[in-house]
Specification:
There is one protein chain. The chain has a three-stranded mixed β-sheet with strand order 1-2-3. By secondary structure, it is of the alpha+beta class. The two termini are 36 Å apart. It is extended, with a radius of gyration of 20 Å. The chain is built from four helices and three strands, in the order βααββαα. 0% of the residues are buried. The protein has a domain of 44 residues: YefM-like domain (YefM-like fold, 3-Layer(aba) Sandwich).
Length: 86
Amino acid sequence: MISVGIKELKTKLSSYVDRVRHGEEVVITEHGREVALVIPISPERKAVKSLIDSGKAKWSGGKPKGLDHLKIKGKALSKTVLEERR
């Protein structure tokens, strides 16, 4: 993982984007403090984008809607997880 200040990032943005494109992560700093992380696009995001581009899926970018009518039987998932941790 490489670290770069904002000023240098501005002047050499294309080269840093190219490094991220090839799998590196870039930590952006401001006055020596970490403020952001630039990471490559995940395989999952690429797969979703591919489905959207091919017309096999639609997504407006928001949270899924229309699931409020579903009723799940049994214990709450959070309760099951806590029990499994014991």
